[in-house]
Automatic annotation (TrEMBL):
Source organism of this protein record: Faucicola osloensis (Moraxella osloensis)
Cellular component GO terms held in the UniProt record: cytosol
Cofactor(s), names only, from the UniProt record: Zn(2+)
Domain of life: Bacteria
Gene name as annotated: fur
Cofactor note: Binds 1 zinc ion per subunit.
Protein name: Ferric uptake regulation protein
One BP term from GO: negative regulation of DNA-templated transcription
Protein location: Cytoplasm
Assembly and interaction partners: Homodimer.
Keywords carried by this UniProt record: Cytoplasm, DNA-binding, Iron, Metal-binding, Repressor, Transcription, Transcription regulation, Zinc
Main location: cytoplasm
Family named by the database record: Belongs to the Fur family.
One term of GO molecular function: transcription cis-regulatory region binding
Length: 152
């Protein structure tokens, strides 16, 4: 699924839902985590940590240290709110943040658009590979690089 550009109302609604979910799980969705998540939701493309840092610095009178941004990104990754591409190390919002799932990411080499594709068969395939090889996967990221329909 491709994550379309969200409206401000959709972003606010999603953030409110995430805050509620975090509170119910006893997690802290700090102001910085919220800012980082909001910037990722607003981004028209996958965004790198230093680009996020620059945006946070320009919006704040305080100095924002890189480790604090990385800790926020780690929280967002760990809780399935964002994904990170291995190829570019950039982050983008998960299209289904309240649903734990395995996905493949289709990355357009022309425009940089990323589509998130989730299907039960992806999980089935990974489970079969783990079982047949007696391998304990700790993380998996499936990226397909090519040309999107719009750029063809």
């Amino acid at each position: 699924m491709c994550m379309p550009q969200m409206t401000v109302e959709q972003i606010e609604s999603q953030i409110a839902q995430i805050k509620q979910d975090c509170q119910a799980q006893g997690l802290r969705f700090t102001a910085l985590r919220e800012q980082v998540y909001r910037l990722i939701l607003l981004a028209a493309h996958p965004i790198g940590a230093y680009e996020l840092l620059d945006l946070l610095q320009s919006a704040s009178e305080k100095v924002v240290a890189p480790p604090t941004v990385y800790r926020s990104l780690e929280f967002l990754l760990r809780h399935g709110l964002v994904h990170q591409l291995n190829s570019s190390k950039a982050f983008f919002a998960c299209s289904q943040p309240t649903d734990r799932h395995v996905a493949a990411f289709l990355v357009c080499r022309c425009c940089g658009e990323v589509q998130e594709f989730s299907h039960p068969s992806i999980q089935t395939m990974l489970t079969e590979v783990e079982q047949s090889t007696n391998f304990a996967t700790q993380s998996s990221i499936i990226e397909l690089s090519g040309v999107c329909q719009r750029c063809q």
